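Thread: nicotinamide-adenine-dinucleotide complex, take 2
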Amino acid sequence: MKIAMIGTGYVGLVSGVCLSDFGHEVVCVDKDPRKIDMLLRGEVPIFEPGLDQLMAKNVAAGRLSFTQDLAAALDGADAVFIAVGTPTRRGDGHADLTYVTAAAEEIARTMTHYTVVVTKSTVPVGTNQMVADTIRRVRPDAEFDVASNPEFLREGAAIDDFMRPDRIVVGVTSDRARAVMGEIYRPLFLREFPILYTDLETAELIKYAANAFLATKITFINEIAQLCERVGANIKEVSRGMGLDGRIGNKFLHAGPGYGGSCFPKDTKALARMGQDHAVPMQIVETVIKVNDEVKRRMIDKVVDLCEGSVNGKTVAVLGVTFKPNTDDMRDAPALTIVPALVGAGAKVRVVDPQGKAEGEALLPGVHWADDAYKAAHNADCVVILTEWNEFRALDLAKLARKMTVARMADLRNIYNQADAAKAGFIAYTSVGR
Ligand code: NAD
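Output below.
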């Protein structure tokens, strides 16, 4: 199959690289010249483990290429994937479909033969129909079908998720489009990963329902964590006791500083708006959004309380600012709420992150970037663990404590425990739900 992939972000680039690894001929298109220049030089514009090698392998095999020229990418293509961003629209919480609409118009102007137009971006119900209407409006004679193929990969484990998905969801309205999609995913079908064919609206909603459910699970355990703190229970053991129940499962039950990232915040908001638009308020999801905001704010109070009521004039070392480990993505990271609040309260904040600096520097003004955790902690009054990078999982706590003026730790990912921290010389330690 010949495939064009519009958008070389976290989803488009990973999908393009993996589809080329299946043996398809893939041309990735982006309107950002900086990204395409990097890709043409063999550089990967994002941090995603393993992506550089897999990309180099498929470029060398002649199956994967990059261009800014959509017409060249669409030439002879069986399918074109739209994998552009759908951020929150300013002001109202809706998904902003500007990029999707623009891509649909560009496809319509450029296409020359029957092509399946596949939306991989996360889009509200009705968007695939809108894409079809847009193409028909711009090019009434165009021969095409639309397909909805939402993506479920997780940043940091994106290649494995794409290559070994729990399921592939494909919304289609014609046998012809179904056949093309079946051929594209045949290598996965042969390895018995389930492909769920459905209609467009169902495929669109599956993605939002899945993300909102996961965000709810995280928020639920964060709320239980708060109760644990009040009643003297231990959230780690509560999570384990719940998660061993096969009906519940142990994933997404880790208490922490609130969910963030490029998907959950915007997708929960978009689902809430969708519910309001259709007079079916998503009351659970609306509450999740509210509670998650409160969780993040509670983390600020935790740090301030640990510093005896004020961080003014104190030096706070923040370990990890990306929204989770193994990515450089800073979108809606809890750090973007917590760090500015500490700076605003008069703290001198030092930050360290294995991959977050390039993105984070502009987003976190007024902080000092350190090279490693020990340098960040030098003469500090408090260390805050915000992202559970492996680098921060096995710290020499005694060494860290010795570097500090006052050894205090806010372990917002529950990596360590009170006893170990005390033994290492920390005079104050706090975590989440314990
Ligand atoms: P991103 O912002 O990293 O990448 C989008 C890319 O599209 C950018 O490089 C941009 O320049 C390019 N682009 C926009 N309009 C274009 C056009 N008309 N022509 C060519 N290129 C264009 O976004 P992302 O994180 O990859 O997310 C893409 C979609 O996938 C979103 O809808 C998101 O919700 C969804 N999704 C993301 C993830 C994730 O973990 N990031 C997971 C599942 C689904």
